[in-house]
């Protein structure tokens, strides 16, 4: 990782630090306390140093959380299979690995930038694009399709994961979904025919299955697009 600009450290402690070490510690604290609970003072205590030394490597908390989220993406890339029988299988495995990583670190989901600018975000999009290029899709469509898949993976993951991550300690995910489903059931079926008929599905659904359902539809559409057409 490149060092961000910051104030020069005071004393000799900063020499024992690195941006990578600070980000590693931040991920641990973010997992334990969430984004609101992370402070430079707490992080400095965790690393047995002073807050001023941290600012030499990371300019502010927003930058730190973004770097930590990018590290989570790096772990997802490492966990995803490096090869697959076909491009569609590779894209599916990669997408699920990213979703699972963000689900384990829900604070990270809204901080994965699109379009990407940091190392692992760039690597993710590049791997997606490389796989898309293997499908036989015309080259002029590679960018649009690759970014659309990238935005689905990161954006839908955030949409699914973040609401559950922001619940207070008194409200579990199941309780939140149950309350929301009850609200849907109270709606007028004449005005909301779909919501009233599927409230039970909201209450009982699995987030990961929901993500994979949309992903498979997207990849099936890609497969159909590039499939050779029979002669007229």
Report the C-alpha radius of gyration, rounded.
Answer: 21 Å
Principal-axis shape equals flat
Q: In angstroms, what separates the terminal alpha carbons?
A: 54 Å
Fraction of residues in helices? Answer: 55-70%
Note the run of SSEs as H and E.
Answer: HHHHHHHHHH
Low-confidence stretches: 1-14
The beta-strand count equals 0
Q: Bin the strand percentage.
A: under 5%
What is the typical, i.e. mean, pLDDT? Answer: 88
Count of helical regions: 10
How would you classify the helix and strand content by structural class?
A: mainly alpha
For the sheet with most strands, the description reads: none
Key phrases:
232 residues, mainly alpha, flat, disordered N terminus
Structure at a glance:
This protein has helices at residues 19-37, 40-46, 51-57, 61-79, 87-104, 119-133, 142-165, 173-185, 193-204, 207-226. The protein is mainly α and 232 residues long.
Structure description:
With 232 residues, this protein is an all-alpha fold. The chain has 10 helices and no strands. α4 runs parallel beside α6 and α8 packs antiparallel against α9. The longest helix is centred in the middle third of the chain and has 24 residues.
